[in-house]
Amino acid sequence: MAVPVVDHEKCVGCGTCESLCPDCFKIKEDGKSWVVCDSCEAGNCNCQEVVDACPVGAISLQ
Ligand code: SF4
Question: Which of 16, 34, 37, 60 to probe ligand 1 with, by most ligand atoms within 8 A of CB?
Fold first, then answer.
């Protein structure tokens, strides 16, 4: 089971992760992406695709 983690020091709030996987990522008021699912599977997300799409490499899987 893969759980996505966002490095908020790196995240620039571009919204790519939220568009690809809205059940796992949400841009909040602070302009950063927050993980809102328990796991990629639970969120029905291809998290590896999102990891690869993040322009600043802010997302990892644990
Ligand atoms: S794709 Fe990366 S930089 Fe863009 S909002 Fe998501 S975590 Fe932040």
Answer: 16
Domain 4-61 fold is Alpha-Beta Plaits (3.30.70)
Q: For residue 25, give the nearest of 54, 9, 62 by alpha carbon.
A: 54
Q: What is this structure's pTM?
A: 0.95
What residues does each domain of the chain span? Answer: 4-61
- Residue 23 Cα to ligand 1 midpoint, Å, equals 14
HSE toward the beta carbon, residue 12, CA cutoff 13 A: 6
Tell me what pLDDT residue 1 has: 83
